[in-house]
Each structure stands twice: as structure tokens, then as C-alpha cells.
Prior knowledge:
Layout: H1 2-6, E1 10-12, E2 19-27, E3 30-35, E4 44-45, E5 50-53, E6 60-63, E7 72-76, H2 82-87, E8 89-98, E9 104-113
Antiparallel strand pairs: 1-3, 2-3, 4-5, 5-7, 6-7, 8-9
Amino acid sequence: MEDCMKAGGSIKEKCSEIEKEVGPGCSKGHCCCALLDVCLGNPMCDDGRGLCRTACRDGEEVKYGLCGAHCKCCVAINEVPDRSFYNAKLHHHSTETTNPSGSQQVTQRRHRTPDV
């Protein structure tokens, strides 16, 4: 147990997807686990729009100061300009089809119509 704590881990039955084996690893039904990324200990930031990580990925922008001293809040970059997104009107189009079992299925499609 002490070796695990020195390695920055905690004892669990098994490590989760966001953890790795550290220190003594797994033996006798117990594992010593630590987060893959220490910043995942505080996962959400920017009102749930971002994730705390040590480094952001392509397609994400950094919001500083929301995840602590050594972590960055990584938020997906919005490639649609806000104004055009909110000004677009959506209308629905329904299509009825018959699937192989003989029952009907209704599919709705949204089409964007620009403001005039």
C-alpha cells in the first residue's frame, strides 16, 4: 500500500480507462492505479463545455485558469460563426418509408434556410 501511495496511486480492484497501473501494479486481486493525465481529476471546465488536460488536442482551444496551475481547459473550436448559426432558420421535412418488416418509418430532415 505504501509503495502505491509513493507512486501517486491508489488501491482498487482494477484500473479504469482513464487510469494506468503504477508502482506495484496489479496482484492478488488489487491494483495500484493513477490517472493517465493528472488533470482528469477535475474533468469538466467552462460550464461543462471543456475538459481539463495537461495538453489540448487539435481542434481545441485553451481556456486558461479554469483547471488549476498546471492544467488547461480544452474546449472544442466552434467552426460555425455564432451569428450565422443563430440567424439560420430550420424547417422540418418528413419522409415516410416502409422497412423490410413492413412497418412504416418516419424520417425527419432539417434544412437550413438563410434569413432574407
